[in-house]
Design a protein that fits this description.
About 50% of the residues lie in helices and about 15% in strands. It has about 240 residues and is an alpha/beta fold. The protein has one domain (about 5-230): 3-Layer(aba) Sandwich (Rossmann fold), CATH 3.40.50.720. It starts with a strand and ends in a 7-residue tail after the last strand. It binds acetoacetyl-coenzyme A (CAA). Acetoacetyl-coenzyme A binds near residues 143, 184 and 188. It comes from Thioclava litoralis. This is Acetoacetyl-CoA reductase.
């Protein structure tokens, strides 16, 4: 029987590529999204993957959303914590609200999603939790004190939870994408973006599928011995 996978932020960008790749690999996939109804409807129409709307920043909404997905598709065995936002500003201009929004979605969001699922994964003695962090959680980025802090937190979360999940055959890993050609990166001012691309040894932005293939591998039974690991997929831009 095919496993159920839930991808947050799964209707656009990297998340959409992950959802599609998991479906192609035989999973029953649900894609969560927070705001863009039009993009979600288009995604479902094109892929046949159902979309579910809630904010990962809201614990109760996550618990209710997960319950709905499980009622529709069965117990979630693969969770991909991909949802993320940016509110870039140099620190002297960064507001408390910009800090709270990014920490709430990009860091607390992975707690909010993983915590309600955790008892079921432990009981069934199988799970794959794959967190999507960022190169900027590894190296820091000018203008992203909030984002870099959250994404670095995602890596620490992964390493702690991997140790707790291991005895129940739950692996927890984190992928750190570099700059990938999505709306988020295209929103960076063009000059800044060009400067960033010039520092990527492979000479191009990543494609969402570059990340999706790594997720499919980490979700597979073949990856059962890999847990607590940080996988960089950044075209050689930062070697940790
Ligand atoms: N290093 C050093 N100095 C920098 C700098 C950098 N990387 N970027 C900007 N500065 C300097 C500017 O040159 C400027 O200096 P002067 O005042 O001497 O000219 C100063 O900082 C202020 O710059 P701005 O006036 O442009 O400030 P701003 O408020 O308009 O915007 C910014 C600053 C928001 C940080 C903007 O530069 C920016 O968007 N940078 C890109 C940040 C980035 O890489 N975000 C990643 C988004 S994609 C993503 O997050 C996905 C992922 O995981 C990879």
């Amino acid at each position: 029987m095919s496993r159920v996978a839930l991808v947050t932020g799964g209707s656009r960008g990297i998340g959409a590529a992950i959802a599609k790749a998991l479906k192609a690999a035989g999973y029953k996939v649900a894609a969560n999204y927070a705001g863009n109804d039009e993009a979600a409807a288009k995604f479902t129409e094109e892929t046949g993957i159902p979309t579910y709307k809630w904010s990962v920043a809201d614990y109760d909404a996550c618990a209710a959303g997960i319950a709905k997905v499980e009622a529709d598709l069965g117990p979630v065995e693969v969770l991909v914590n991909n949802a993320g936002i940016t509110r870039d500003a140099p620190f002297h201009k960064m507001t408390k609200d910009q800090w709270d929004q990014v920490i709430g979605t990009n860091l607390t969001g992975i707690f909010n999603m993983t915590h309600p699922l955790w008892p079921g994964l432990r009981e069934r003695k199988f799970g794959r939790v794959i967190n999507i962090s960022s190169i900027n959680g590894q190296k820091g980025q000018f203008g992203q004190a909030n984002y870099s802090a959250a994404k670095a937190g995602d890596i620490g979360f992964t390493k702690a939870l991997a140790q707790e999940g291991a005895r129940n055959n739950i692996t927890v890993n984190v992928i750190c994408p570099g700059y990938v050609a999505t709306e988020m990166v295209m929103a960076v001012p063009e000059k800044v973006r060009e400067a960033i691309i010039s520092t990527i040894p492979v000479g191009r932005l990543g494609e969402p599928e570059d990340i999706a293939r790594a997720v499919v591998f980490l979700a597979s039974d073949d990856a059962g011995f890999i847990t607590g690991s940080t996988l960089s997929a950044n075209g050689g831009q930062y070697l940790s």
